[in-house]
């Protein structure tokens, strides 16, 4: 019974998260994380399916796996936040709600850039070759001076 309940909650969360990707009112990431939580405790099949979706890959995969987000992805996420929150602020009929949405936007932005660590990118192959070449030259210099 618990397994089926978690699968239903996971599917509902995924649907709401998917809608949140296009509607400024619903948050995407929390619903996708809830879906992942539910599927991880109920069905390996649904859990694997969720992890393969583009939505999950874009919004959650980096953070869930490494507790970090690459800087370029942070900027993409931030751009989505700004666009959707601006639309929400513009459409909100009550001034107090506009202020709350603006404060929420600032809080989310600060959290994204100041609390969540940047994922260090892997050096490219050319960078690795350059480092190895430099190390070889330094080793070569030391071995010649020892002779």
UniProtKB/TrEMBL annotation:
It holds the Pfam family DUF454. Keywords: Membrane, Transmembrane, Transmembrane helix. GO terms for cellular component: plasma membrane. The keyword Transmembrane helix applies. Coiled coil: none annotated. The chain crosses the membrane at residues 75-92, 99-116. Residues 122-136 have a biased composition (Polar residues). Residues 137-147 have a biased composition (Basic and acidic residues). Residues 122-147 are annotated as: Disordered. PANTHER family: INNER MEMBRANE PROTEIN YBAN. This is DUF454 domain-containing protein. It comes from Tetragenococcus halophilus (Pediococcus halophilus).
